[in-house]
Automatic annotation (TrEMBL), chain A:
Residues 56-187 form the Rad51-like C-terminal domain. The gene is LOC113522584. It comes from Galleria mellonella (Greater wax moth). SUPFAM superfamilies: P-loop containing nucleoside triphosphate hydrolases. It holds the Pfam family Rad51. InterPro entries: P-loop_NTPase (IPR027417), Rad51_C (IPR013632), XRCC2 (IPR030547). Signal peptide: none annotated. It comes from the Eukaryota. This is DNA repair protein XRCC2-like.
From TrEMBL, chain B:
The keyword Ribonucleoprotein does not apply. This is DNA repair protein RAD51 homolog 4 isoform X1. PANTHER family: DNA REPAIR PROTEIN RAD51 HOMOLOG 4. One of its GO terms (cellular component) is replication fork. The gene is LOC113517509. InterPro entries: HRR_RAD51_Paralog, P-loop_NTPase, Rad51_C, RecA_ATP-bd. Pfam families: Rad51. It is found in: Nucleus. GO terms for molecular function: ATP binding; ATP-dependent DNA damage sensor activity; four-way junction DNA binding; single-stranded DNA binding. GO terms for biological process: DNA strand invasion; double-strand break repair via homologous recombination; reciprocal meiotic recombination; telomere maintenance. Residues 77-245 form the RecA family profile domain. Keywords: Nucleus. The lineage of its organism: Eukaryota, Metazoa, Ecdysozoa, Arthropoda, Hexapoda.
Length: 248, 332
């Protein structure tokens, strides 16, 4: 082996590698059943707002295991995604109504980065390593949305939307390759170069692989969620009552 | 993307920049993406120095982490801007939220009139200021004065209202972005600014219609990103006026063209289709969307009905409507 190619491993990276958990347990079983594995990539898209579903997912992910949640530490990249903090806090309060004392402790596992331009977006992304060093328990990272700076990054030559997404995902995966962190990202439905939403083509490619693709559709007052992986495809329905998701 | 040469960074002198440029490392993204060891080799800096540059970049450009506890302090619950038109406030769950709200309608559907009324209601009996960005050159102080006059305002109160509505005329997207940037950087300070009205956005965007490199969308994206900063940091509501277009389509079966198109059957075989302008990118941006439609003016009292439909409220799809009256007295 070329001695110059020896890679140094930081303590945090070593720790991340050694404390092997294979999957996030009890994370939103209604969509993920036994749960996504650490390091997997989940895409969510819709032509309507994903905010209610995303907020419900975040709250369920934060809630302690003893109360039926996944008890994760989460980092959110808030770009032009449309979920708002009020709704998030309100939803979490409702879910922890019986256990008010746990509210602040649960909230402390939430970390947010507000991103306002492309330079800040990439700089923060490369800076994740430092953020993970300080908050080594972060195991889920959410980009809402991943496509916010697409147009401001286009010059005379326009990158195709699919290619752009792949490139951004590549950067994310490169930065996070040593940390076993699950990634969820959202995009608007139109953000797609081809009409073909064939998941297999993405899953088979190792680097830009998507593991789950979640689509939200609103039809006649009912929300339909389609979850696709390379093996299966499931459909679930919910309605929103009092800003709360009720699965049917 | 920020160019390396346009910022001051530790160790980045002329020679270092030159060797980076020769190796096609020109932006911050290029620099961070490249292996630090390779950069050290190319620039003859030490590895430690390259890491220092990286840290300098992180310090200057990386977002600050907000923890859950800090978030709770930051949240101002139910912060909505009450617009003082009761039925409209009701269907908006208390007023216009912090964020971007779109007012959309056909030409002559009362969008500007509603904006005038909201600007008045927002500043009267309060210390709020409103920034009215006029892109069509038709902001009419006379019309506002007339509304106030009809509602029995004294000259002194009229003057007070008008001083609190700051009007600026903007003719291009570049100018609009420059203005928002100045507000962000506090080079342009408007105290107690509660609302920005952009009347109208398509007027600026249509200048870029047909640009092969989609420059208009690049500007729109930049403008939205500045707006996000402004409403989040300064707790502002931003109203953007958009227009609707309509056309008659012969093909009845082709109803599902676009989710945002509403179709009304006029006669068998013909369909009137309506579309919100500004394209697919914009459709996801406003948190609240209000559609306006004006009925014919009544000859009895010279008033028109303004049918208002809220199709999206705080990011939740909905379908609520109310009818307002539009006349000399403004909108009620």
């Amino acid at each position: 082996m070329d001695p110059n190619k020896i890679k140094l491993e930081s303590g945090v990276q070593l720790l991340a590698r050694l404390i092997k958990k294979s999957k996030i347990e009890n994370f939103y079983p209604v969509l993920f059943k036994s749960g996504p594995k650490f390091g997997e990539v989940i895409e969510m898209f819709s032509n309507i707002s994903l905010s209610t579903l995303l907020i419900d997912m975040i709250c369920e992910a934060l809630i302690p295991i003893k109360l039926g949640g996944a008890q994760l530490s989460i980092l959110i990249f808030k770009t032009d995604g449309d979920f708002n903090y009020d709704a998030l806090v309100e939803c979490l309060r409702k879910k922890l109504e019986q256990f008010k004392s746990l509210f602040h402790e649960t909230m402390s596992n939430l970390h947010i980065l507000e991103i306002y331009d492309a330079t800040q977006f990439y700089t923060t992304m490369y800076n994740l390593e430092n953020i993970f060093t300080e908050h080594s328990d972060i195991s889920l990272i959410i980009f809402d949305t991943l496509t916010a700076f697409y147009w401001s990054e286009q010059g005379f030559k326009i990158t195709k939307m699919d290619m752009y997404l792949k490139n951004v995902l590549k950067v994310i995966q490169e930065v996070m390759k040593d940390y076993k962190i699950t990634v969820i990202y959202t995009r608007p439905e139109y953000f797609n170069s081809s009409k073909d939403t064939n998941l297999e083509t993405c899953v088979n490619s190792n680097t830009e692989g998507l593991d789950y693709r979640i689509q939200l559709i609103f039809e006649e007052g009912v929300y339909k969620v389609i979850v696709k992986t390379s093996q299966l495809s499931i459909k679930r329905h919910f309605i929103i009552l009092d800003n709360k998701i009720n699965w049917i | 993307m920020q160019q390396l040469k346009s910022i001051e960074l530790i160790y980045l002198n002329k020679n270092v920049l030159k060797s980076l440029t020769q190796n096609r490392i020109t932006t911050i993204k290029d620099f961070l993406h490249e292996d630090p060891e390779k950069i050290a080799l190319l620039t003859k800096l030490t590895f430690a120095q390259v890491l220092e540059i990286r840290n300098d970049i992180y310090k200057k450009f990386s977002a600050v982490l907000i923890t859950g506890e800090k978030l709770l302090e930051k949240i101002i619950r139910n912060k909505k801007l009450c617009i003082g038109i009761k039925s409209l406030d009701e269907i908006l769950d208390g007023g216009i939220p912090v964020g971007i709200t779109e007012f959309c309608g056909l030409a002559e559907s009362g969008k500007t009139q509603l904006c005038f009324q909201i600007a008045i209601n927002c500043v009267k009996n309060s210390e709020n200021n409103v920034l009215y960005i006029d892109t069509k050159g038709d902001f009419s102080a006379l019309r506002i004065q007339k509304i106030l006059d009809t509602n029995g305002f004294s000259h002194k109160d009229m003057a007070l209202v008008l001083t609190k509505i700051k009007v600026i005329r903007i003719w291009s997207m570049e100018e609009l972005i420059e203005l928002l940037k100045k507000i962000k950087n506090k080079q342009c300070c408007i105290e107690k600014l509660a609302l920005i009205i952009i009347d109208s956005l398509p007027c600026l965007m249509f200048q870029h219609l047909g640009d092969s490199n989609k420059l208009g969308l690049t500007y729109l994206n930049t403008m939205v990103n500045y707006s996000r900063y402004l409403y989040n940091e300064f707790n502002l509501s931003i109203i953007c006026v958009n227009i609707q277009t309509r056309w008659i389509d012969q093909d009845v079966s082709d109803l599902e063209d676009d989710g945002e198109i509403s179709s009304i059957l006029k006669e068998p075989g013909f369909v009137e289709k309506r579309n919100r302008c500004l394209g697919k990118y914009w459709k996801h941006i406003p948190t609240t969307v209000v559609l306006l439609e004006k009925s014919q003016m009544s000859t009895v009292d010279n008033t028109s009905d303004l049918n208002v439909t809220v199709i999206k409220c705080c990011n939740i799809e909905c379908d609520r409507y109310c009818t307002l009256k539009l006349g000399d007295f403004g909108v009620t």
